[in-house]
Amino acid sequence: MFDLRSLRLSAGEQHRQRLPVTIAEFTVGGAPYVAVPPEVEAAFAVTRLRNGWVFDEKFAVEVHGPCHRCLEEAVLELDIAAQEFHSLDPELARDEDMVSPYLSPDDLLDTDRMASDAVILAMPVQVLCRDDCAGLCPRCGANLNEGPCSCPPEQPDERWSKLRELL
Questions:
Q1: Which of 20, 63, 91, 113 has a CA that sits 20 to 30 A from residue 146's CA?
Q2: What is the pTM of this model?
Q3: What does the alpha-carbon distance between residue 127 and residue 121 come to, in Å, rounded to a whole number?
Q4: Helices (H), the chain
Q5: d(CA 162, CA 167)
Q6: Domain boundaries, given as residue ranges, for the chain
Q7: pLDDT tens digits, residue range 13-54?
Q8: What are phi and psi of 80, to 5 degrees?
Q9: How far apart are CA 116 and CA 128, in angstroms?
């Protein structure tokens, strides 16, 4: 937690510092992922605007979890740049997009939750252990990255035989 009350910033001024943030374990597609190490150092900045605050966090993180194709461990290296705006204008503050969910009413900014959410948003749609991951055999479950499985070749569906004749 970062206490904004400790800052005495006027509009247009910025406070910068390095601070540790803890990335919570999370799930993507039902699979657990964890940052290694869970605590990283972030470049943190708070900018005071005339009508609000802007919060910035930048850090690099290594995320470990299962590959979506073969279930072996995948390691992702992510560069995170998160930014949040919080309006102090009562009219704008009614809109939930104009206030930060990480800032409590007593001006404590949850930098850990902000960092964790930024990592989740930066995760790729499909997590792979490597770009050319072959996955698992759908019949026997063998890891095709280690070589071909011993399943017999799949027999073509006879309903498509007339179309194959056209080729």
A1: 63
A2: 0.82
A3: 13
A4: 111-122, 161-166
A5: 9
A6: 2-133, 134-167
A7: 899 999 999 999 999 888 999 999 999 999 999 999 998 899
A8: -105, 135
A9: 20
